[in-house]
Fold this protein.
Amino acid sequence: MNREAMRAVIAEEISAIAPEADLSAIGEAEDLREALDLDSMDIFNLVVAVSKRLQFDIPDADAGHLVTLGGGAEYLERKLREAGEG
Amino acid sequence: MGTFTMPSLGADMEAGILVEWLKQPGEELSHGDIIAVVETDKGAIEVEVFEDGRLDRLLVEPGTKVPVGTPLAEIAGSGTQAQASPPPEPHVPADAPVETAPPAPPVSARPEAEPVSSIAPIFGAGERISPAARKLAYDKELDLNALQGTGPDGAIILADVQKAAGLAAGGANRTRPRNLAPMRRAIAAAMSRSKREIPHYYLCHSFDVSAAREWLDAFNGGKPPAERLVFSALTLKAVALAVSEFPEFNGFYGQNGFSASRSIHVGIAIALRGGGLAAPAIHNTDRLSLPELMLAMNDLVSRTRAGGFRSSEISDPTVTVSSLGERGVEALLPIIYPPQVAIIGFGSVVQRAWATGGAVQVRPVMCATLAADHRASDGHRGALLLRRIEELLSHPEGL
């Protein structure tokens, strides 16, 4: 899956956690916690949901990548490509 | 024969709307069953029954607003008064203006066409209406009696309410704002009462939380995402264990003074998206393992934000914790939720130059605060409580 698809996965899972969130106005590098008022429990749930959906365990140390749409999409695309090559 | 009454779901509640019966006459009830949904200023709350028996007769129709203590149903085979959840103290009305009315006269289990209560019900009794439609109508303060239902048998469905509210049907109204006014009134009533009646004293204590942080990183390191913990699970458990040794901070202040609670139900202040907050309890917090506590917290936060907490959770916290999380500020001076006698605040963890072992190092530091009721405890014991929380967090493997 490409980067756009990864971005869409993150966006959909955020919408499930925070249904009122307006993702159209969020920049690629914008901190989702600030922009959408997400707390650590929300980020925990986001990491769980994205991991489950992609069947890829995001290590705890990498979870911080998911606090921006751009960073999360780039990270997931790279990791899944590496996993595919490996 | 027992009577199931409108519960007091918080010190500030004077009346509630019986939204829906989830049990019907003839059904067997056991302790903890959710019997009804009640709408309060805090949102829709699932009300549990704490008796075993058989539901005999419903006394109040859905849609009726009745004062706290009004009999709602009769339960056969239970000898005592079936309180929806045991209130911590006799109900003390707050000063906030709330509509009150005489108890609704009994109605038959099969609702008649007309509501018999003298209060104008917010929703017509006996109407067929979907839960989503009911919730939206409540949020928008729409009169359901004026709506034309287009669902099966003329039932009012979400689309009807959306149309009446001027909203596009379908998923387009995701960002619709909640009606915050009732919750603001509830917060105002509880906090005004607290500031008026409770002689607060405040203590703060900053300490190094590197042991807890390192332990958490190590614990989470090898775990799949769903089994990890967040930092606030540790602080919550530390509070629960600490107050078990300092009972004067865990309980309720009522008409006969302070009474300590044997159980520890820590309330967690949960900020709702778009504004407002609620502080429902995690039952027996001290007895849950950290993974159990994490699950309970996550479940409670999700349900609270979706507006689905239960009566016992909202009515019986014995002490409350308010955490600012990672994007807050250093410290908060919280206000006690009456009739509780203490609230513990945790500021954000911040990196600070910290003197340790004769040298200055950069350490993660957190400020814990205590607001406590001077009628129930004194500052000396409060200080010991905060130091005990520090000690527990310094040895997180024991949590």
